Amino acid sequence: MLEKIKDISIEAEKILQERSLNHEDFRLKFLSRKGQLNDLFDEFKQVSGEIKRQVGQNLNLLKNRLDEIHKELQAGNSQSGSTAQGNKEDLTLPVIPNAVGTLHPLTLVRKKIVEVFARMGFNTEEGPEIESDWYNFSALNFAENHPAREMQDTFFVEKAAVQKDDLLLRTHTSNVQIRLMEYKKPPIRSIMVGRVYRNEAISARAHCQFHQVEGLFVDKNVSFRDLKDTLFHFAKEMFGKNTKIRLRPSYFPFTEPSAEIDVSCFICKGEGCNICKHTGWVEIAGSGMVDPNVLKNCDIDPEQYTGFAFGMGIERITMLKYGINDLRLFFENDIRFLKQFKGI
Ligand code: PHE
């Protein structure tokens, strides 16, 4: 009998290793009423004498081990997700699709902007969001107490004894222009992407935080025409190939001359609608030729080099592109809003 116990034990271990039986067939073969273990117990009744103790012990060990193996086979089956009838997968079951997330519309538009400019040879730079007055204002030719500082309501972090050392949340990404020109000499052809802050009441059209992309191109012989061509190309890539652009004179302390860039309204194709307030044009960016004072502040000789710069709000471009009428939607993480940008 001891031999038989040993043989059954070896066979059961082999089944476990090779998973050659599922848990139910295993149970029928070894553990059920008509199974091999029961036969052994029947046989055991006839055993007598000295050997009985040893056989009894081995039989109990075998029983415990068979129970264990049965449980392991059961666990293995549920892991592989097979059916109760066998360990084969049920290939007819319908697929349960995974819930797939979507990119945030601002991310989509940012990626598109970066891509369009990358093709024109612009690399991407970043800079700090907590900035000193020098990089955010003074180096950009904002005179002390000049009303232009008021154009951008500033969140101050720390007031210093000397104004240029004040710490603040940057109000535009133009601070990166200065940092870039400080450590890199022309040719410079970069866009600067990031978050900016302004002390504005939150409404459908304004927020205290938003995102900008700014561009800077400094080299020998960079002209206003290069600025126009670059932004014209961008507008066509972003809003469609029939898009026109229009430049209107404007003012920024750090550019001279300065211009606002409008694009022809791609909703009504210039005929007049709510988005363009019936003018046929929508404003997308500020721009201009880098003021010689800014170049000087960064130790770049304005006699030798010229440059252009432009800046735009990613939220604004996104709202125009997708006809979104409330800026707050971008920051609320409402899944019903975000879901609509699937696959764009
Ligand atoms: N920094 C300006 C702004 O926020 C935009 C701009 C950038 C204008 C570069 C001209 C040139 O508002």
Give a written overview of the molecule.
The structure is a single chain. This protein has 2 domains: 2-80, no CATH class; 105-338, Bira Bifunctional Protein, Domain 2 (BirA Bifunctional Protein, domain 2, 2-Layer Sandwich). Helix content is 40%, strand content 20%. The relative contact order is 0.11. It has 344 residues and is an alpha+beta fold. The longest helix has 30 residues, at 51-80. The protein starts with a helix and ends in a 6-residue tail after the last helix. The protein has helices at residues 2-18, 23-31, 36-44, 51-80, 105-119, 133-136, 148-151, 174-183, 224-239, 292-297, 314-322, 329-332, 335-338, and strands at residues 123-125, 130-132, 156-158, 167-169, 188-197, 209-219, 245-252, 255-264, 281-290, 306-313. The chain is built from 13 helices and 10 strands. Strand 7 and strand 8 form a beta hairpin. Phenylalanine is lined by residues 172, 174, 214, 252, 255, 286-288, 309-311.
Q: How are the secondary structure elements laid out?
A:
Elements: H1 2-18, H2 23-31, H3 36-44, H4 51-80, H5 105-119, E1 123-125, E2 130-132, H6 133-136, H7 148-151, E3 156-158, E4 167-169, H8 174-183, E5 188-197, E6 209-219, H9 224-239, E7 245-252, E8 255-264, E9 281-290, H10 292-297, E10 306-313, H11 314-322, H12 329-332, H13 335-338
Parallel strand pairs: 1-5
Antiparallel strand pairs: 2-4, 3-4, 5-6, 6-10, 7-8, 8-9, 9-10
Helix pairs in contact: 1-4, 2-4, 3-4, 5-11
